[in-house]
Amino acid sequence: GAGVSQSPSNKVTEKGKDVELRCDPISGHTALYWYRQSLGQGLEFLIYFQGNSAPDKSGLPSDRFSAERTGGSVSTLTIQRTQQEDSAVYLCASSLMGLATLSYEQYFGPGTRLTVT
Amino acid sequence: RKEVEQDPGPFNVPEGATVAFNCTYSNSASQSFFWYRQDCRKEPKLLMSVYSSGNEDGRFTAQLNRASQYISLLIRDSKLSDSATYLCVVKAAGNKLTFGGGTRVLVKP
Predict the structure, then answer these.
(1) Which candidate in A23, A104, A113 is best for mutational testing of the B interface (most B CBs within 10 A)?
(2) Closest-CA residue in chain B for A33?
(3) Residue closest to A57 by CA, chosen among A67, A72, A43
(4) pLDDT, tens digit, for every residue of A66-108?
(5) R_g of chain A, CA atoms, integer Å
């Protein structure tokens, strides 16, 4: 079946521009996560959506970062006034959450490689 | 102190050998533990969950030591295809997963 998809796969932008990154989770998955991974580094949690609950924004590095999830499905991560330190791979993951499952397996998309020049 | 810490490696392993590495976590209330595998320039994928009693999946064995707050991964009979970065993942209360920085394993002929 279809996995998590992300677009664009690569994005090059000039410093100071805004960018939007898109994530399409696996159908039926109620949880959606955004992470950032800099070259050679581990995953940095950014934000988490679970159903209709308020998102956990505790990982967003600054108020230039925001995300929304419309209709409990597609999510968009927006970075305003991009800086060079925002350059990284932005990974989206989704998981099937619920009382019936003890699995928190996250399925990752291929990521968006963002380069700020 | 980081919530989840791993030796970054690389662990250089001869093909056919056994390699093991640990991951320590700081939150004693952590509930669930996982090992993910990430190939170069690819997304992470779940390798295995880690159960309290320890568990094995083929050549891979995972252990949990709650008293000392670490989990381990052991790979037997290493294959060239085992070369990857292994990410330790911990879930505390709530649904957020915390990833370690990864341990890089290089299996050489």
Answers:
(1) A104
(2) B96
(3) A67
(4) 999 988 799 999 999 999 999 999 999 998 874 445 566 889 9
(5) 14
